[in-house]
Amino acid sequence: MKTIKLVFQEFLNEQQAQLKPRTYRGYEEAISLFEDCLDGYGWNSLNQEEADLYDELYDEGKEFCEIFGPDKITSSEIGEFLDYFMIRKVAASNTLMETVGRVIRKFVRWMGEKGYMDSECYEGAAMAVDELKGDLAKVTELSALIFDYIRESPDVDFEEIEDGYFSVVAIKPGELWVEGYIGQTGLIGPVIVSEEISSICKEGWVISLMLGKVGESWRMIESGFVYQR
Q1: Which one has a higher pLDDT value, 128 or 24?
Q2: Are residues 82 and 43 in the same domain?
Q3: Over 70: is that where the pLDDT of 114 sits?
Q4: Does residue 19 sit in the same domain as residue 123?
Q5: pLDDT of 178 higher than 90
Q6: Which domain holds residue 125?
Q7: What's the pLDDT tens digit per position in 9-22?
Q8: Taking burial as the number of CB atoms within 10 A of a residue's CB, which of 38, 105, 112, 192 is the most buried?
Q9: Is the model's pLDDT at 182 over the cut of 80?
Q10: Cα–Cα dist 135/83, whole Å
Q11: Predicted pLDDT of residue 139
Q12: How many domains are there within the chain?
């Protein structure tokens, strides 16, 4: 069986033969980050028999990508990489975010062409990449904009405070309406923001926030990361 690590190396070898060195370095970095993500979190999707094998070989010094084959790369793993690991675990620039999205899309297509993914898995993985890769840089930019907006906002007294993950359900210039992502709260809004923030934000995105109510509107008090779903 060809392991994920060997498949990664095969992909990189082919790209290195076709790309300029500077472009190839971006591919190498993107694949390295994906490997780190799988080594760190891929074991979560294993069944009991696979988990026992993983524990045994991990104790011998092997990582997830050195144990399992490319069948363990599905839309779930890609989604976790693009919409969690890259956002929360990697302090990436917009340029790196764009590179990673582009490289992973090409890698998935290559996997399908090589037969490392069956047609059903390929379709799901390609859909996940297409859904997430285009806005990777934008969610990073939005996180920074929200942080700066909060830092520059004047201190006020709040009548009520809500804290958690909020899904954006409606947007108007300078205003957002949100609701608890996992059912903590109902509709909250309008949340006053800059027009730059509202122009970048998209319905369905999830933002980690502390919100305070002032009169009939809400203000952002603290923020964390922005996720596409």
Answers
A1: 24
A2: yes
A3: yes
A4: yes
A5: yes
A6: 4-134
A7: 999 999 999 999 99
A8: 38
A9: no
A10: 10
A11: 87
A12: 2
Paired tokens of 61: 């010094």
- Res. 184: pLDDT tops 70: no
CATH number, position 167: 2.40.50
pLDDT of residue 95: 86
Q: Which of the listed residues 134, 156, 180 is the one where a domain comes to its end? A: 134
What secondary structure, in 3-state letters, does the chain show?
Answer: CCCHHHHHHHHHHHHHCCCCHHHHHHHHHHHHHHHHHHHHHHHHHCCHHHHHHHHHHHHCCCCHHHHCCHHHCCHHHHHHHHHHHHHHHCCCCHHHHHHHHHHHHHHHHHHHHHCCCCHHHHHHHHHHHHHHHCCHHHHHHHHHHHHHHHHHCCCCCCCEEEEEEEEEEEEECCEEEEEECCCCCCCEEEEECCHHHHHHCCCCCEEEEEEEEECCEEEEEEEEEEECC
Least confident of 47-51, 100-104, 215-219, 223-227: 223-227
Decide: 198 and 173 in contact? Cβ < 8 Å. yes
Q: What does the CA dihedral 195, 166, 144, 131 come to, rounded to 10 degrees?
A: -90
- Residue 114, classified by CB atoms within 10 Å of its CB into exposed (0-12), middle (13-18) or buried (19+), is middle
Q: Tell me the average pLDDT across 199-224.
A: 93
